[in-house]
Amino acid sequence: MTCKEAERLVMPYIRDELTDEELKEFLEHMESCPGCRDELEIYFTVEVGIRQLDSETGNYNIKGALEAAIEQSRQRIQAVRLIKIARYSVTTLSVMALIITVLLQCRIWMQQGLL
Ligand SMILES: [Zn+2]
């Protein structure tokens, strides 16, 4: 992901509108690019600051809030990855079970002299 693309996704990220794929690439870019990370922090601060004006909480930790938001995003990506791995495992196991069943059946036929 380029800086321009990352910049374009800052606001959607703060509004929690990114797809899982976008989110993954966005976070990877934020980890490797201090410039965009600063940008995100500024936008996040402004956005959260505005929201805070509506609420009563006085001393809101904005930097901590961004860390928490990024941590939450990471967990979401982690969960998506786990689901993908689980799905892949189930598919693989099903195929293996099928192959083993066929092999065992062939062995039975061979023992019976049918093959
Ligand atoms: Zn960048």
From TrEMBL:
<keyword id="KW-0472">Membrane</keyword>
<feature type="transmembrane region" description="Helical">
    <location>
        <begin position="85"/>
        <end position="110"/>
    </location>
</feature>
<keyword id="KW-0812">Transmembrane</keyword>
<comment type="similarity">
    <text>Belongs to the zinc-associated anti-sigma factor (ZAS) superfamily. Anti-sigma-W factor family.</text>
</comment>
<dbReference type="InterPro" id="IPR027383">
    <property type="entry name" value="Znf_put"/>
</dbReference>
<dbReference type="Pfam" id="PF13490">
    <property type="entry name" value="zf-HC2"/>
</dbReference>
<keyword id="KW-1133">Transmembrane helix</keyword>
<feature type="domain" description="Putative zinc-finger">
    <location>
        <begin position="3"/>
        <end position="37"/>
    </location>
</feature>
<protein>
    <recommendedName>
        <fullName>Anti-sigma-W factor RsiW</fullName>
    </recommendedName>
</protein>
<dbReference type="InterPro" id="IPR041916">
    <property type="entry name" value="Anti_sigma_zinc_sf"/>
</dbReference>
